[in-house]
Amino acid sequence: MMQGFVLTHQAGLDLATRPVRLSASGMRDIRRQATRHGQLESITVAAMAATTSANVWLCGQITNEHAIRRLLAERGHVDDGRSGWLHHLYREYGYHGFALLEGLFAGALLDDGALVLFASKTPGPTLYYSIDAVSRTVWASTELKALPLARRTLLPLTDILARDASCQRHATCLADVWRVSAGYCVQIDLADVPSASEQPYYSVLRTVNILDEATAASRIYATLSQVIQRLPGQHAHCLVSGGLDSSIVASLAQAHFTRLDLFTLGSTARNEFDKADALGRALGLPVTRLLIDESQFLHSLPEVIALVEHGFSTFIEYLIPVHLAHKQISSRADIMLSGYGSDVLFAGFAKAGHDTRTVAELVSSEYASTAWSNEASQCLGAAMGMEIGYPFFDSEVVDLAFAIDPYLKHKNGVEKYILRQAFHGKINAEVLWRPKVGIHEGTGCEDYFTGQLSERGADRTRLLKDALCHAVLREILEQDREPADIDMVALRQAVLAGVMPR
């Protein structure tokens, strides 16, 4: 499976090869080909030798690939045994063909003088592009840091924080660099002056037509079960806390995978080892404890920012413990399973007293944030040489969640009420009704950074956290520094002293 790629197209024949930074580890392949309007260079990273077609690049996984290939074969398209079938799909359906695909992926294909970029229906692998009309050059990359240094101009923190939701969806932290959003494709005309047009092919906006509690619960259980049954491999790892989301994924995975290994992370200051152990006993599986020191949170901050390539501390605090867990797991499996996405779709962030309207708006806004938070970025696993599966972010689960009455997601003031009902009698009752605790809370990561940056008042803490992350981002993208070379103590002191990133 391809874990990352960088494409550069330039008019004329003077395209120069340059060094490229990619987080993904694996075999690199560099190819160059002539196009109708110039030259295209592709740099790919894969866990093993790539079997892709010359004009198709795909990062991530399409879970219904075999079904689509059979469909195209029935219609007379010749299968090249590689990824050429995506070309056939695009020529048969245009951008509407991407709506037939399931899974989490991002890709590009060269078609009749155009470079077509596309992302899966729901947020997964990242894909960015930039166009220089003067030099008639187009770049497309799965990572921002792989773009030329001259294209990596970081926007001021104030500008980034001031964006509205619609702008945030396709913008990035860099000037004149854009994101291919989930559910969208971008066609770049490679003619005399390259130009891009964005086209949506999927939306979560749909009719809310599942109003009955029993029907909703039954559909949730069946859909999640089917999604996990489609996941590849025989051996899975699962990071668990003993909370609802990871317990659901682990219990369903146990019925599918030949081997399932459970891991739980905690710090010397705080952990949920007892709850994770209780889940292990219920499933009849051992749980491996991963213990970290709080000091690792600060020094891991640059590593995580380098992977997600933004400076929004709210999301980074959640991802730091996940990243540390991935680093500590030395054994390898076919896939690492995550419970991420459940809180977003089923109102896990709702509070007591929230009415149905507030819950509906909360789910909508939280899902919108996933378009740019990169919490399901391929880099988080690829940097450790692993693939991560997100069952809750399968488009079938997302479709179902948005068709369910928001009232059922927070009935009786219980967050994720309908998800809990879906697994009533199927997982331990103590786990089923346990209040939500995020991994950043259960490991003490959120409180650690609050303590590090609260010297100027609690009301400023979140801004200071974002400022620190933005300063790290500048070091990585503009100064081209490796995470290990960044002096976090000095940056923290600068932020506290009011030397804010511009």
Number of strands: 16
Cα distance spanning the termini: 39 Å
Quickly name the level 1 CATH class of the largest domain: Alpha Beta
Structural class: alpha+beta
Number of domains: 3
CATH superfamily of the largest domain: HUPs
The low-confidence runs, each spanning 5 or more residues with pLDDT under 50, are none
Q: Name the average pLDDT.
A: 90
Within the largest sheet, what's the order of strands?
2-3-1-8-7-9
CATH architecture title of the largest domain: 3-Layer(aba) Sandwich
Nearest-angstrom radius of gyration?
23 Å
Chain oligomer state: single chain
Principal-axis shape? globular
Number of helices: 20
Strand content: 15-25%
- Approximate helicity band: 25-40%
Largest sheet: 6 strands, antiparallel
CATH fold field value of the largest domain: Rossmann fold
Would you give an account of this structure?
The protein is an alpha+beta fold. The chain folds into 3 domains: 2-200, Aminohydrolase, N-terminal nucleophile (Ntn) domain (Glutamine Phosphoribosylpyrophosphate, subunit 1, domain 1, 4-Layer Sandwich), CATH 3.60.20; 213-447, HUPs (Rossmann fold), CATH 3.40.50; 453-496, no CATH class. It contains 20 helices and 16 strands. The strands form 3 sheets. The chain has a 6-stranded antiparallel sheet, with no helix packed on it. Strands 4-5-6-10-11 form a 5-stranded antiparallel sheet, with helices on one face. Strand 7 (128-132) and strand 8 (137-141) form a beta hairpin. Helix 8 packs across helix 19 (461-477) and helix 19 (461-477) packs across helix 20. The chain is globular, with a radius of gyration of 23 Å. The two termini are 39 Å apart. The mean pLDDT is 90.
